[in-house]
Structure formats: structure tokens, C-alpha cells
Amino acid sequence: MALKTDGSKKNYVNRGAWTAEEDQRLAQVIEIHGPRKWKSIAAKAGIDRCGKSCRLRWMNYLRPNIKRGNISDQEEDLILRLHKLLGNRWSLIAGRLPGRTDNEIKNYWNSHLSKKIHQKGKQRRRSPKTEGSNPQETGVLEKENVKVSEEGTSKVNADLKTSFNVDEFFDFSSEGFSNLEWMSQFLDVNEVLCGFL
DNA sequence: AAAGAGTCCAACCGCGACCAG
DNA sequence: CCTGGTCGCGGTTGGACTCTT
After folding, report:
1. Within chain A, which residue ranges are assigned CATH 1.10.10.60?
2. pLDDT tens digit string along A120-160?
3. How far apart (Å, rounded) are the C-alpha atoms in residues A93 and A73?
4. Under CATH, to which class is A73-120 assigned?
5. Residues A28-44 pLDDT 10s
6. How far is residue A95's CA from residue A92's CA, in Å, rounded to a whole number?
7. CA distance readout (Å), A130 to A123, A124, A167
8. Is A191 or A139 the better-scoring residue by pLDDT?
């Protein structure tokens, strides 16, 4: 990773990988001042990082209760379903998976799930019998899904937003990980409803 | 054993939204 | 209103690691 300077030591910004010492300093400052005003946190920690970089490090790595690696089948299934529903809105999807970060889910999607879906699509295109019988399983609809995800805040998502507030609807504040099952059931119902529309 | 290809994931970038002054 | 600062998001990059030949 490259280090970038503008020539003056004052504006030197480290852009490389984070060291254990930097992590420790950042965590200490956040413990005292809380995770806000990232620019001043960076300054107080005495590390040559921009506020943005500090925030990212905290959100994706240092934050308490972060789960790392080993995404379970249940979580994977949930990601797939939520992606179908919400598109590439990783922060929203991550919000429904306690302990997971948007970056992790995005990476997981790009490296695992997008391939899986692509492969499934290929298989299905090879077996014309299934085509038409279940529109959700066809390559045609898959294209539509891609469209939704490419546009990010697609029209479909915009419509969704106006019809209900996602954050209010999926309020996990008082419930734990066990909600995954409930969510799974909800998404099943949602898929059936989508079939009617 | 070495080289090249493929994969993973931490971190950066650009942009838009929000808010205080 | 306008402006500047801050924050959060999704997309992208590139280094490290693993696999294949």
C-alpha cells in the first residue's frame, strides 16, 4: 500500500495497513470520546490518518461484537434473500446481520455469492424445462435482479422505501441473533407476495 | 521449486446527504 | 438560502495469500 504525502510533514497521511499500535491508540481515544468527530479522534490519537480512515477501521474491525469470518449457511441464505429484496444496499443488509459489517457482506457477496448466482443462472439456462414454470428461477428474472443491484437505489427500492421504513420494519434493537429465523420466514412470505405482483 | 493465475479482503476513493453556523 | 465540515455509503483497488501448472 502506498503512502501519500503532499510534501509537507503537516499534511502527511498514512494510507497503508493499520498497525496494532494504531489500533490501540484509536480504540483508546474512542473509548474516551466516543465514536464521533472522526477528524478530531484522528488528531487526538496522534496517528497520521484521516478521520475517514479511522471511522472505517473502527466500523469494520475494532468495534465490539464484530464477528469475523465463517458466515453460516443461515446467514448466507439471509444475505441472498435480503439482496434480492434490497439490492446492493450493504449497510441495510449488514444491519440485519448482527456482528457483520457492510464491507464484509459486500466482499462476501462479490467473492462468493455473485459467482454462485452466476453459476446457478448458467445451469438453469441449460435446462429449458424449468424456464417459465417458475419465473423467479429463470435467467430472465435473474437479469432483472442484476438490474436492481446495479442501480443500487433502484426504482423498485425507491418504491419500497416509500411504502415502509426498512429500519423500523426490521427493528433488531431489542432482539438478538435468533431473529434470523423469523427474518427467513418473513422473506419466504415476501417472495410469495412478489410472485403475485 | 518456481512462475503465473486466481481469490480474498482490508482499505481507499468519490459522491451525496445532512447539519450547524 | 448558502457554505463548509462531517458522516455514511457503494464501488473499486491492490497487496497478500493460495492454487494450479
Report:
1. 20-62, 73-120
2. 665 655 544 333 333 333 333 333 333 333 333 333 343 44
3. 16
4. mainly alpha
5. 888 888 888 888 888 88
6. 5
7. 10, 7, 36
8. A191
Residue count (chain A)? 197
Burial call A128-156: b when 16+ CB within 10 Å, e when fewer: eeeeeeeeebbeeebeebeebbeeeebeb
Cell of A49: 490518518
Nearest nt to A37, CA vs C1'?
C6
Q: Which nucleotide is nearest to A52 (CA to C1')?
A: C7
A197/C19 CA-to-C1' distance in Å: 46
CATH superfamily of A20-62: Homeodomain-like (1.10.10.60)
Buried b (16+ CB within 10 A) or exposed e, A77-87: ebbebbbbbbb
**C-alpha cell at position A178:** 435468533
**Cell numbers describing residue A32:** 474516551
